[in-house]
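testing teh design pipeline on a random one, pls ignore if ur not involved
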């Protein structure tokens, strides 16, 4: 077991993630909300474009939270909550803001989970792409 300390996600990292996701969305002509959470699920950064649908703020936060709690992109979890899926009852079993729609991506540093980003406002596949671009830009 490694005891090497991993630098946590900083507010500077979080702002960089928000900027990268928003730039990717803007290049695609999509208005979005972006949420970044630290490893404890605490809000580090949030930004909703002026013209983004209001609910995108809530969906971006829930996507980030879901990706963080399950340490997986929400895009990879969509099938698991369908009838017969491994997590079929999970969305209603917990009193937590889980959302199984693509757009949430965990953030790792040196192989350790340090936070998550969620993007809402575009089509789920677009949101996943914007979040993934942001995470890759942090490396």
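output:
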């Amino acid at each position: 077991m490694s005891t090497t300390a991993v630098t946590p996600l900083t507010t500077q990292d979080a702002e960089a993630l928000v900027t990268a996701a928003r730039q990717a969305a803007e290049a695609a002509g999509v208005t979005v909300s972006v949420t970044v959470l630290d490893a404890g699920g605490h809000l580090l950064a949030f930004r909703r474009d002026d013209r983004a649908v209001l609910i995108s703020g809530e969906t971006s936060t829930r996507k980030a939270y879901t990706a963080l709690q399950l340490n997986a992109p929400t895009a990879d979890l969509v099938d698991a909550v369908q009838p017969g899926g491994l997590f079929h009852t999970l969305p209603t079993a917990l009193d937590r803001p889980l959302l199984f729609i693509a757009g949430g991506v965990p953030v790792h540093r040196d192989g350790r989970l340090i936070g998550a980003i969620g993007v809402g406002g575009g089509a789920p596949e677009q949101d996943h792409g914007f979040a993934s671009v942001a995470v890759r830009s942090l490396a």
